Amino acid sequence: MTTRGPSTAHAAVSRIHTSHLQNAGIRPPRPLCAVIASSRRFYSPPATPPEDLDRPEKSALVAIKGLRPLDPVNPPRSTRPPDLKLPKRGDENVAMYYFRVGRAYGGFYWVGIKAVWFNFQATRLLKERIQKDAGEKWLGVVKRSEFQLLERNSHDIGKLPLFGVLVALLGEWLPLLVPFMPGVVPGTCCFPKQLEGMRKKAEERRRRSFRQGISEPSKEQISEIPEGAETGDWPMTGKDYAALKLKGLRDDQLFHLSCTLDLHNRMWDRIQLPPPSWLLRRGLSKRLSYLTKDDKLLSRDGGVPKLSSDETIIACEQRGLDVLGKREEILRNDLTWWLARQNDDRGKGDAIFTMLFRRPNAWPPQITKK
């Protein structure tokens, strides 16, 4: 004969009690264990849905939160424009086809705008971590990909309010107007034809400047740095140091550098006047400091072989190197050569001036270390 324990008897009574309540049309009380489990689910933070981890516009936020590994060299996918998938022309009428094209551009812009916002959230988390861990010496602790995330979002977030209003007002008509106002478009919202048009204009401006035959700065122009300005290796990472290096350059040399790096507004080209020298110096000191930081981090974190194809193109055009119609192998060779000269010079500025005043095929085989 088997003796029933207290728990077995309690379960049997509970089942009888529950069946009587259900027959009477009364909802039985929930077991205590179910109530506790429900409260735990209510108060515990919701898990990130798996599909959110794969959304390209959230890739930076996911990586900075540590939910996915972060590439040390290539910035997250959300810092570049999303894929634009335009519909193919079928049997529908013209109006329906262009309606579908407009919807494709609308979806493209919407994903790009969301990417800027999610990148902004990621940069806030990243800045908090940097401030806590490194403070003023932040360049020594960030990866190259994190540095690029900070820089690109700093460029994009200021454009978000105006561009968001334009998207809301113009919708599918916006791609027709974007070529006339490229300065208001965040980097995540530049579609392929727009990027190609911008690169063509930049390379044509660069060719015109090189045809002028502006002489490169002499050693006397760029070597007079006050004592104490050079602090260790790669001093050109500081904007103040870069401004001192630019101090001895003539106006035509400053204008050539700005054309080579495609910095000043094209309005000056339309009115056929060079920008004021103070404006050129401000833009150039900021860009030269940025490039030197990026060169230092790229060299430290793996170099050109670690760069993706898209990031190789972006890195070359930022350094004033032509990219249209060139094979990836040539671009990687030019960028490798650039980094080698910067490492020889230890970021003191002499090498970068030499390369910006010469075409890649005229770069010196070696720059003497100082």
UniProtKB/TrEMBL annotation:
Q: Pfam families, alphabetically?
A: LETM1_RBD
Domain Letm1 RBD residues, every copy: 168-370
Q: Which PROSITE patterns match?
A: LETM1_RBD
Q: How does it sit in the membrane?
A: Single-pass membrane protein
Keywords assigned by UniProt?
A: Membrane, Mitochondrion, Mitochondrion inner membrane, Transmembrane, Transmembrane helix
* Protein location: Mitochondrion inner membrane
Primary residence:
mitochondrion
Against InterPro entries, the record matches this protein to: LETM1-like_RBD, LETM1/MDM38-like
Q: Where is the signal peptide?
A: none
Name of the protein this chain belongs to: Letm1 RBD domain-containing protein
Q: What is the lineage of its organism?
A: Eukaryota, Fungi, Dikarya, Ascomycota, Pezizomycotina
